[in-house]
Write a structure and sequence with these properties.
alpha/beta, Uracil-DNA Glycosylase, subunit E, 6 strands, globular
């Protein structure tokens, strides 16, 4: 049954309120001592190019449209990207790639994302991560992942219109599988392995695999703009 416009708007308002409450909880989190120390240490001694900037240096909630049909899940905030700017995938080259692609696909209002107040808005898309603090060497421990995972579970639960999840890399793929199982989805056994372009039916979602837009992948050509665009085009098709 197609929802009427007032019903749809009420559902989105409820999702927005729930996501705002969850964001406040995420921002105050200090569950993982190693991650707290690292994120705050990065802010206290930044590289020269960021000296004098006021770092966010707290955990990050997701960002985007509470009525989104597409959720994009990454690994964790970058130490001098989102940990600095306070918005997922903002202020680093991975974010440059991701938001430029989202703009080309019609999900983002502009192709750049440099700070929280730069005017960027997402339409029908929501960007988040498995782990909410910047981890040393970009490697969260299994215990840190498990401590953070309930936040992703609750975000997916609150994003009631979400139909498609794009997992950026193997860590995100595994995290989404764990979150979906916690929400009652039937996860196949053996566990489906991550691959770029992989597609998996997962309860009420379809999950798509995409290489992470890290410099390691984009500088080497492992991930190209057409490859990323194709994943987002498939997500758009699934959401129709």
């Amino acid at each position: 049954m197609i929802q009427s416009v007032p019903v749809k708007r009420r559902a989105e308002a409820e999702s927005s309120t729930g996501l705002e409450k969850l964001a406040a909880e995420v921002h105050a989190c200090r569950r993982c001592p190693r991650l707290v120390e690292w994120r705050e240490g990065c802010a206290a001694d930044p590289p020269r190019r960021f000296r004098g900037e006021d770092y966010w240096a707290r955990p990050l909630a997701g960002f985007g449209d509470p009525g989104a049909r597409l959720a994009i899940v990454g690994l964790a905030p970058a130490a001098h990207g989102a940990n600095r700017t306070g918005r997922m995938f903002t202020g680093d080259r991975s974010g440059d790639w991701l938001y430029a692609a989202l703009h080309r696909a019609g999900y983002a209002s502009q192709p750049t994302s440099v700070r929280r107040a730069d005017g960027l808005e997402l339409s029908d898309a929501y960007v988040t991560a498995v782990v909410r603090c910047a981890p040393p060497a970009n490697r969260p421990s299994p215990a840190e992942r498990d401590s953070c995972l309930p936040y992703l579970v609750r975000e997916l639960e609150l994003l009631e219109r979400c139909q498609t999840v794009v997992a950026l890399g193997a860590f995100a793929w595994d995290g989404v599988l764990r979150a979906a199982r916690a929400l009652g989805a039937d996860v196949p056994r053996p566990r489906p392995r991550f691959a770029h372009g992989a597609e998996l039916s997962l309860g009420r979602w379809t999950m798509l695999g995409c290489y992470h837009p890290s410099q390691q992948n984009t500088f080497t050509g492992r991930l190209t703009e057409p490859m990323l665009d194709a994943v987002l085009a498939r997500a758009r098709d699934l959401g129709r």
